[in-house]
Structures are given as C-alpha cells and as structure tokens.
Design a protein that fits this description.
The chain has 375 residues and is of the alpha/beta class. It has 14 helices and 13 strands.
C-alpha cells in the first residue's frame, strides 16, 4: 500500500462570530492510497496556515511541505513518517503550527491504519482501559454572573454533572471574576463539578488570589490562568494553589509539553489531538503517567477530533473526564454522519475501524472554501 494523494480542505460556516471558539472553521487532511482506502484528520489551528504547510513545495532538505514528504510512502509506518516530517520541516516546524499540520496528517494516517486492519484506533494504541467517560459540558462564560448562571442551569438540565466555563469576560476585574464563578456555581447547583478556564489572563500572584477565591465555590480545577509559555509561573502556582491547575491545550507536540512535565508544573495535562496527533499524544501520555499527574483531552472543534480524543483518552490509565464541546455550531454537529456527543452526561468510545466516524460529504461540499491536492 502507498500514499497516492494528500488532499487539504478548508471549511467555514456562514456566520463566524468574534469569539474564542474554533468550531467555526476547519482544516481537513485526507490521505488516499492506491488501494482505495482514505484516512481523515483535522488540525485545530489557522486553516490557511496549515494548508500552506501541507501544500508547500520542496525548498531544501529541512524545509519541505508535507505532501512532498508523504506521496509514495507506506501509510502504515506512522512512527517513521512522524520522524520524517519532523526532520524535514525543522526550519519552520518543531513546535506550533508546523506540529499542528503534522498532527492532522498523523490523525489521518492512524484513521487509515485502523481501516486497513479493521480495528478502532484505541486497539492499535495498545487497548482501551475505559469504554465510556463522564463528560463535562464545555462552554464560554456569559456576559455576567446572571447569564452564566442561566448557561450552567441549561447544561445541568441536559444531564451533565460537570460544566466548564471559559474565557471572556474573565480577567476584566476581581469583581467580575468572582461574579462569574459565583453565577456558575449557582447555575450548576451544589453537587455538580465546576471547572474554570481563565483564558491566560493573570500573572502568578493574581492567579493565586483567584484560586483562593474560587476554592470557596469548590472549583475542581483552574485552567490556563497564566500565559501558556510561563512554565515557571505554573510550577510556582501549582505548589501553592488550593485548586488543581490545568493547562496544555495550546501545546503542540512532545517538545512543547516536555518542560511542563520535567518541572511537574501542572496537576492536569490537557492534550489536544488536533494539535499533537496520536503518535506524540501517546508519548506525552506515558510521560505524564510516570509523573503521577492526571490527563484529560482538550477538544473544542469537530466530531473528528472528539472521536480522536476518545480513542486516545480510552488508553489513559487514570482518565476521569472528557471535554465535550457544546457550542451550537454546524461543524460540531453535522460534519460527520455519526454524532459524537454525550448522552445524559456520559459519552461512549467509538467502536468502528479507525476513528469510527465518516464525513458527511454533502456538508463538506456546502462549506468548502479551499481545496488542494486532488489529481
């Protein structure tokens, strides 16, 4: 079997709002072989930038577009192909968007491998330790505590026993921050799990004061209180905070996660399969488990990444929650024929070959804004 085509497609919904939510557009990588099999992957990044990395022609031996590196290769050799892509993109890759483009390719390769062997990806990764997860509804804050309370009540009534609220307007002031979290707790009630995503808004000392305040509302974790690169700040905060500290959604690949793991800077490491791919996410899982910290997925995009996250998370020994994006977006609900969403607060790990989901090609055609790689 060999790779014949690497197709990169950009999709975008009609009404894109100015908000911190990445389920408004998507970049898909489709890898097709001479045997007729196709694997599908996705990156959570700027679609046009990812597409440029996939499409780029040969420049020199360590600055080469991904398609150039893949056509003619055996798609089952996932580890070798990851290393080849990493080596041959060193002058524009190594971390960040170069890795996100590789992650989309890697996801597609593992999907293809699963289809070739007629096995779900979690089986190829070593076997699942969990068949289902308690899901938390992942949603943005309201404009204030009152609106946040209403949002929380909606998702508890939908059956979720855990809800995460994130980003704007948190960080506006201490009064606003406290009001938002009090509203969140009122909305979900006394017994549900409350998760707070600050959205990288404070310095370490301010974050510690907020963690002490949010502990009064029994927050289960405080996510990304600091800028994403502040490894020492996270280590300092984790040692002092009464609330567990979570981060990692912005990290791309093992080299990006390495300083956090080496410094034991986090309580919960959040790994996004659309920024890391299965090959590096598996390495990261082993390192985090060795450190004694906990793992959770990050996913705020399409059912492709939701399915990928479930396969990977199922192999994590101490996995305890699944991030379930509840944004009302067509990309979240209609991109695949299968609906990957929690039912009464629980979500099942897909059992079909590969990712276990299939693209809705009518939806793809209606929302396609750019494509490359077809011959």
């Amino acid at each position: 079997m060999r790779i014949e085509r690497v197709i990169c497609q950009i999709l975008r919904i009609e009404n894109v709002a100015a908000k911190t939510a990445s389920c408004q557009d998507a970049v898909l990588v489709r890898i097709q072989t001479n045997t007729g099999l196709e694997g599908i992957g996705e990156a959570d990044s700027s679609p046009e930038v990812v597409k440029a990395i996939v499409d780029a022609p040969f420049s020199h031996n360590i600055a080469c577009g991904l398609r150039e590196l893949l056509v003619g290769e055996n798609p089952l050799e996932t580890e070798r192909l990851w290393q080849k892509m990493y080596r041959r993109t060193m002058y524009f890759g190594r971390k960040g968007v170069g890795i996100t483009a590789m992650a989309a390719v890697d996801m597609a390769l593992w999907d293809l491998k699963g289809k070739a062997f007629q096995q779900p990806i979690h089986c190829l990764l070593g076997g699942k330790m969990h068949s289902r997860f308690r899901a938390y509804a992942s949603i943005l804050f309201g404009r204030d505590g009152v609106e946040t309370e209403q949002i929380g009540r909606k998702w508890v009534e939908a059956g979720y026993t855990a809800v995460k609220f994130g980003w704007e307007p948190m960080g506006t002031s201490e009064e606003v921050d406290r009001d938002l979290v009090r509203g969140a707790r009122r909305g979900i009630g006394h017994d549900a799990t409350l998760l707070i995503d600050a959205g990288c808004v404070w310095d370490a000392r301010t974050a510690l004061r907020r963690a002490e305040a949010f502990a009064e509302q029994r927050a289960e974790w405080l996510e990304e209180p600091l800028r994403q690169d502040d490894v020492e700040g996270y280590r300092w905060l984790r040692d002092r905070s009464p609330v567990p500290i979570a981060s990692g959604e912005g990290e791309c690949g093992r080299e990006s996660f390495r300083p956090f793991i080496d410094r034991q800077a986090l309580d919960v490491y959040q790994v996004d399969l659309a920024r890391n791919g299965f090959t590096d996410a598996s390495y990261i899982r082993q390192r985090v488990e060795e450190s004694g910290a906990r793992l959770c997925n990050h996913c705020y995009t399409s059912p492709l990444t939701a399915a990928a996250s479930l396969h990977w998370l199922a192999t994590c020994r101490d996995a305890f929650l699944f991030e379930d994006c509840v944004e009302d977006s067509p990309l979240r609900h209609e991109l695949t024929h299968e609906k990957i969403q929690a039912v009464k607060g629980w979500i099942e790990v897909p059992a079909g070959p590969g990712l276990g989901v299939n693209l809705n090609e009518d939806f793809v055609r209606r929302h396609l804004v750019a494509e490359s790689g077809r011959s």
